[in-house]
Amino acid sequence: MNVSGINSGLIKINQNPIQNVGSSSTPNSFSGVLKGYLENVDSTVKQASDLTVKAAAGEIDNIHDVTIASQKAKVALELTVTIRDKAVEAYQEMMRMQF
User: Fold this and answer.
1) CA-CA distance, 53 to 85, in Å (whole number)?
2) Contact at 8 Å (CB) between 11 and 51?
3) What is the 3-state secondary structure (H, E, C) of 44-96?
4) Residues in Cβ contact with 58 at an 8 Å cutoff, skipping those fewer than 6 apart
5) Residues 6+ away with beta carbon under 8 Å from 33
6) Exposure check for the chain: N or C terminus, fewer CB within 10 A?
7) Contact 20, 36 (CB under 8 A)
8) Is residue 22 within 8 Å of 33, Cβ to Cβ?
9) Which of 83, 71, 55, 77 is nearest to 13 (CA)?
10) Cβ atoms < 10 Å from Cβ of 54
11) Can you give the C-alpha Rg of the chain in angstroms?
12) Largest Cα–Cα distance of the chain, in whole Å?
């Protein structure tokens, strides 16, 4: 039984949306980290969209890859929206402070 051939047909998707978050121009700055994270979220969403289109066209036999990619994109977007909401909330709280 050849087990090594099982993974040959799988479609590789971004395993960790936070991975490689540094930007090439300013790797240690907050804006560089934020930009890198948003680019990874964008690529995760695009991969899920591409897999969905391929599944609809009948080009993909394994629907599990499409489902996993869609769920990863959903979680990445939910995390991004939550972070945005918390940042806006913190900004509004700072504006309400009296000195």
Assistant:
1) 31
2) yes
3) HHHHHHHHHHHHHCCCCCCHHHHHHHHHHHHHHHHHHHHHHHHHHHHHHHHHH
4) none
5) 21, 22, 23
6) C
7) yes
8) yes
9) 71
10) 14
11) 19
12) 73
Q: Confidence band (pLDDT; 50, 70, 90) for 15?
A: low
The rounded distance, in Å, linking the Cα atoms of 64 and 71 is 11
Residue 7, classed as helix, strand or coil, is helix
Each residue's pLDDT tens digit, 24-62: 555 678 889 989 999 999 999 999 999 999 999 999 888
Q: Say which residue the tokens 């897999």 belong to.
A: 51
Structure tokens at 72: 């990863």
pLDDT at 76 over 60: yes
Tell me the whole-structure pTM to 2 decimals: 0.67
CA atoms of 39 and 11, how far apart (whole Å): 20
Task: Check the CA dihedral 29-31-34-38 and report its sign.
Answer: negative
